[in-house]
Amino acid sequence: AEATLGGLAMGVGMTTHSHKVGLFQETILSFDLVLSNGNLVHVTKDNQFSDLFKALPWSHGTLGFVVALELKIIPAKPFVHMHYMPVIGQKRYCSLLDELSGASDATKNTPDFLEATIYSKHEAVILAGWFSNASDNLEVNPINRWYKPWFYKHVETFLKKGNSEELIPLNDYLLRHNRSIFWVLESMLPFGNHFIFRYLFGWLLPPKIAFLKYTTTPGIRKLTVTQQVFQDIVLPLATLEQQIDLTEELFDLYPLLVYPCRVYDWGPRAGQIPQPAPNTLCPGTNYAMYNDLGIYGVPGKVKRKCKYNPTEAMRKMEAFTRSVG
Question: Which stretches are annotated as coiled coil (predicted)?
Fold first, then answer.
């Protein structure tokens, strides 16, 4: 995996468990930080560096170098009991995701892991997972074996199969999108999910992101910026239908990745993240339910060799983001 705890702490750390606990920063009790003058400081929300504690999340390493973190953790189990729920109809899958996240009812017993893969405007598979031991009388599917189908392709099969359940080893689940870099690798390696390639060469995947960057020429870098999209945008879950409509209009690409996340309201001077609007707070709580919208791949206009203006598309998406949240 390319993600690190330091990167999640200083960036915008969000996972499919975030509908229960919020952003990664909510789990941090302290930072050990090397400042620009070389001093090592211990940063907590209650000591002399409390202002730094609030400012570090979302700072992307501009305020110091993190060398240690103290985190709140929970017990884990060796497997994830995964429920695959295919849903036809945009309103239906948006409504089900809202319900499962607990956005409308904070007392609801929510899954440990929750996400949706949206395959078209009207088709999605919602994945709800619970920590589990190997005692649920279910088949164990080690999804990250080199010969296995890419995970999003595996999930897509449930649009035809219907509701299903299986056990996934926890480590496999956490790295489920690695081999195919979500679904980006398909545009680089169209035959990568073919069973013959997987069986003979699947062990080579995923390519290291650092290696790909190192071997990329200036020309390819320009094409990556102007003819591909790699965006994770945090928006209020209540606007999910609008998000999908606008994404289809601007980028015309699928799948899309969605998973809910609590965003807490800790007051006006609680850090770099804006306070959620009062009318977005979940009833009886101090948090609003937002979601990550993952847009990765080649826009439809580029595939069809039509005129595509990435700057204009992103400006419209940024304007929408500001307007809703």
Answer: none
Contact predicate 81/135, CB 8 Å: no
Instruction: Record the pTM.
Output: 0.92
Instruction: Find out whether 148 and 53 touch, Cβ atoms under 8 Å.
Output: no
Whole-angstrom distance, CA of residue 146 vs CA of residue 212: 20
Domains, the chain, ordered by start: 5-71 (3.30.465.10), 76-324 (3.40.462)
The answer for residues whose C-beta is within 8 angstroms of residue 125's C-beta and 6 or more apart is 84, 85, 86, 87, 116, 117, 119, 155, 156, 158, 159
Query: In terms of Cα–Cα distance, which of 191, 255, 261, 193 is closest to 229?
Result: 255
pLDDT in tens, 142-167: 999 999 999 999 999 999 999 999 99
